[in-house]
Amino acid sequence: MNVSIIVPTFNEGPNIAELLRRIAAVLPADSYEVLFVDDSTDDTPAIVTACAAESEAPVRLIHRDAPDGGLGGAVVEGLAAARNQWCVVMDGDLQHPPEVLPRLIERAGQGDADVVVASRYAAGGTSAGLAGWLRTAVSRLSTLVTKAMFPVRLRACSDPMTGFFLVDRDAVRSETLKPRGFKILLEILARARYRVAEVPFDFAERFAGRSKASFLQGLRFLLQLTMLRFGRMSGFAVIGAIGAVANLLIMAGLQSLGLDYLWAAIIASEITIIGNFLLIEHFVFADLRSHASATWSRFAKSFAFNNAEAVIRIPAMSLLIEATHIPSVLAAAITLIIAFVVRFVFHSLVVYAP
Ligand code: GDD
Ligand code: MN
């Protein structure tokens, strides 16, 4: 069976030669190609080109000047450009030992799986390369939560966050993928039903360089998960809730500096409205931006809407109380819910309209 080995890279120069050497040591040269999908800002592309000239097996490089979708986007682009039906996805830093490749390929050869996952958490696998107890705990916990959110589709997968797997490209419905951030396997498995098999492996230490994972990646992951499960509106709601808390904190801070409560409330609201716009641009509507109007025009619409909403909601609440005589807390809750839905609809259909 021939495979395409897709390796997303971001500044991994010192790892390239070692990776290719270790792959060549375990697979026949005529049985695979390596496809680097690279977003580097350093000399990694030049190193890949130099190593490709030395390699017996074909080594290709897709360098992206305008990286789209980060690591996940790179993998989707690799799947589209691969020459073989079976594609391995693996990291370029040797945390995914190439020595596992023959077992992955052999497992796929049994013909009863669309996806073969290299798992740290299947019996016989380890995650020793996860530096520190904190990352290990976060990884374990997020795996549990994720499996709980997709109990059926992830039943057969003990490690949905792994970046090491083999897929039948023809089985993967790549048009359904909206890759954002690091967790591309989860994105694939959660969107459709596949036959999943597993091979345990030992997650190793990095060979050279530093991890690109960050707190921001973690936040992005949580939102990705929420939206994958509950739709775009849930991401919008999470960010709205963060904004509501921030609004209160800023207001309290300004008041403690001696500002009058009305001014504190106005300034806190404006800061929150702007922050909210930046967050939804980045996390909720990122995929719609390129087809929507210009950034300043989106901002103007969003800003105007949110200010109008803030001004209208209070009198609307009084009207509701007068008309129906319901308790004021209930009236506040009703107007907040209506405002939230209208805000979401307005942003989806107007601010980010194609
Ligand atoms: N093209 C591209 N673009 N590649 C990227 C980008 C990007 O924006 N960001 C990271 N990469 C590449 C890295 O160069 C590396 O080859 C691979 O993706 C993994 O990145 P690391 O920085 O090594 O991440 P990690 O080791 O913290 O995370 C890995 O393990 C996690 C499980 O603990 C990844 O495999 C994750 O997907 C996995 O969840
Ligand atoms: Mn790594």
Q: Architecture of the largest domain, CATH level 2?
A: Alpha-Beta Complex
> What are the bound molecules?
guanosine-5'-diphosphate-alpha-D-mannose, manganese (II) ion
- The helix content, as a percent range, equals 40-55%
Q: Give the neighbour order of strands across the main sheet.
A: 3-2-1-4-6-5-7
Mind telling me the CATH superfamily name of the largest domain? Spore Coat Polysaccharide Biosynthesis Protein SpsA, Chain A
User: Runs with pLDDT <50, length 5+?
Assistant: none
Shape: elongated
Q: What would CATH call the class of the largest domain? A: Alpha Beta
Question: Whole-Å distance between the termini?
Answer: 43 Å
CATH topology of the largest domain: Spore Coat Polysaccharide Biosynthesis Protein SpsA, Chain A
Beta-strand percentage?
5-15%
Give the class from helix and strand content and strand pairing.
alpha/beta
Secondary structure: number of strands: 7
Count of DSSP helices?
A: 11
Q: Rg from C-alpha positions?
A: 24 Å
Helix/strand order, N-terminal first: EHEHEHEHEHEHEHHHHH
Mean pLDDT over the full residue set: 91
Taken together, the total number of domains comes to 2
